[in-house]
## 1
Amino acid sequence: TFLSGSGLVRTLWFIVITFVLSDNQILSTKPGREESLWCTVRNNSRAEELRWYQGDGTVNLKDGNKMNTTNICILPVSKTDNGVSFTCKLVRNESIQISVTLDVQFPPLLTGEDPPPVEEKNDVKLTCHVNSNPQAEMAWYKDNSPLTLKRGRYQIHHTSEVFQLTIKKVEKSDNGTYTCEAKSVLGEMRKEFHLTVEDRKPAFPLEAIIAAIVVVLLTIIFGIVARREKIFKVIKTSVNQKT
Ligand SMILES: *[C@@H]1O[C@H](CO)[C@@H](O)[C@H](O)[C@H]1NC(C)=O
Ligand SMILES: *[C@@H]1O[C@H](CO)[C@@H](O)[C@H](O)[C@H]1NC(C)=O
Ligand SMILES: *[C@@H]1O[C@H](CO)[C@@H](O)[C@H](O)[C@H]1NC(C)=O
Ligand SMILES: *[C@@H]1O[C@H](CO)[C@@H](O)[C@H](O)[C@H]1NC(C)=O
């Protein structure tokens, strides 16, 4: 008894294509499509029950969809299904199994927000969030010309999810429009970020103000202490005068 590789049927606009599955097959698809996965027992001498797993969790199957052959539908396929694997196992002996992993392909999608206005000499980060399969080629532009990574003031942090530009010690000339660009075989997208560089505000003289407050407080306290002594003296002298 073994699970046939010829289990996968794909439905798309009424066209039915049958794939031959070897173990752990990759199924390339797109968001919005409908995919149907089939699993069939071949050369079995008796009725065999089948079970589907999505990742580690079991998939609930209707009663008529368990014996000898079974199918599950993914309707519609979404971006979040990318990388999800479906495994069909023989209930009697789960080591007999067949898997398919979804490879959901879609053009790049960029998102992100303008940074708040930044003062000269401070650092600023422009974070471009990328969602793309296959991975896109990324680039930054400033006022529509490619960014030259000059004098180490620019740093780029690139993962599968973000493409982040850090500008160290911004200058007035860094003010402008920055464009994050993603290109893949499925398409391209650009996202603009506006960076406003403000004049450096004069340093807030916090220490001077604290010092002034301390001086004023001390003056008041000494004033009170001095007066108390005077008050006592007055009382003492008046008492002395009475005697
Ligand atoms: C399964 O049965 C088919 C015929 O139905 C035969 O051609 C094939 O060799 C068999 N495979 C195994 C592994 O027994
Ligand atoms: C499953 O296959 C076995 C062996 O070929 C057969 O006896 C049985 O009737 C089948 N059961 C169903 C529900 O198709
Ligand atoms: C399950 O199937 C595997 C592969 O065919 C086999 O080696 C193993 O002995 C079977 N285990 C049981 C408990 O039948
Ligand atoms: C700074 O950049 C912003 C955004 O691109 C732009 O609107 C503004 O006119 C620029 N300011 C100066 C002084 O260049």
## 2
Amino acid sequence: MRPPGRRDVPSARPALPLLLLLLSPLLLGAPRGVGAGSGVPAELRVRVRLPDGQVTEESLQADSDADSISLELRKPDGTLISFTADFKKDVKIFRALILGELEKGQSQFQALCFVTRLHHNEIIPSEAMAKLRQKNPRAVRQAEEVRGLEQLHMDIAVNFSQGALLSPHLHNVCAEATEAIYTRQEDAQFWTERGVDSSVFEALPKEQMELPRCGQVRDQGKPCVCRYSLSLAWYPCMLKYCHSRDRPAPYKCGIRSCRKNYSFDFYVPQRQLCLWDEDP
Ligand SMILES: *[C@@H]1O[C@H](CO)[C@@H](O)[C@H](O)[C@H]1NC(C)=O
Ligand SMILES: *[C@@H]1O[C@H](CO)[C@@H](O)[C@H](O)[C@H]1NC(C)=O
């Protein structure tokens, strides 16, 4: 039975029909994809192998009008990871919906949002993403390249109600994480220099730097520094170019896939908001 007041973890969005299924490995289709350029995101669903060997489904959506890409995958433990790249605003958003363990008295799920600067060479352009097709949707894909772990220290907060000033995606993506949206001073500075209103950003308590890691704190009510790590198991990180005798210049003919781990350190006002961080 569902306990009263339970909120369901949002599931991956339903698939849009794909009109074109082109070659395998993934290639860029010459014709424009479903909805590309018409305001309806094009979606690709791929099966990916996680580092621990398990297979999960990943959904990749591209909206070339909004110039954005989003990626969503569910980990075997039920955690839903999503990544949004907003090329217009140089913003990327990571969101984790972490399922609580009911027997430990935890609430249904906990949401975290990490917002950092998007560099345009981190992932392929949205217009190329919208054209990606696969011939064999059952194929299990594994990233061709493993990129190094990126460790980020999230030292300021984002005010959810002002979030649209930073990226129009923030309101949807971080709706469950209103009290837990983090970014970095250096990213905030980059965006404010480009005209984003500084009211988006909020200082965290000054002592945050000196606090112990949550794994070392016993008192559930005490503030501490929490760490959350996530993995983008498979994403198209670069375009591949081919040469042909019929064409004067190299042309885009596919993608290179990458896997990358991120680890975020951030302030929590209470140890109990970081239950996964065990004694290291
Ligand atoms: C990346 O994360 C996955 C799952 O979280 C883990 O199994 C793997 O060892 C990590 N790899 C690196 C290079 O940190
Ligand atoms: C967030 O911004 C709104 C509007 O400026 C403001 O009223 C509110 O107090 C801010 N929230 C926090 C937690 O500072």
